From TrEMBL:
Protein name per the record: Centromere/kinetochore protein zw10 N-terminal domain-containing protein
An annotated GO BP: mitotic cell cycle
Source organism, top-level taxon: Eukaryota
One GO cellular component term: nucleus
Entry-linked InterPro entries: Zw10_N
Pfam families noted in UniProt: Zw10_N
Species: Patiria miniata (Bat star)
Length: 92
């Protein structure tokens, strides 16, 4: 059988351990919140820099597509014109 003093000391030890755990959990929670903030800031900054670049690249892509279509149309007209001219030439 344990003494009353031992029981009191063990009870106090449990309280201290629980308090220590609460303190650690609190510190970890604070640290997690700080890291969340850093991640949010980093992602936001990357996106803020990325978006104008993406928009500019999309605009350039659209211009290239339009130019490519115009070139293809012109090339087709030239081919049709050449085929029409070659059928009109007198046979030698």
């Amino acid at each position: 059988m344990t003494s009353h003093v031992t029981d009191v000391l063990l009870a106090n030890t449990d309280l201290l351990e629980n308090e220590d755990l609460r303190t650690r959990i609190g510190k970890l929670s604070t640290h997690i919140d700080e890291i969340k903030g850093e991640i949010y800031h980093a992602v936001h900054e990357k996106y803020a820099n990325y978006r104008p670049t993406r928009d500019s690249t999309q605009e350039l892509h659209n211009k290239v597509q339009t130019l490519s279509t115009e070139m293809q149309t012109l090339s087709n007209k030239i081919k049709v014109k050449q085929q029409g001219d070659s059928t009109m030439e007198p046979a030698v």
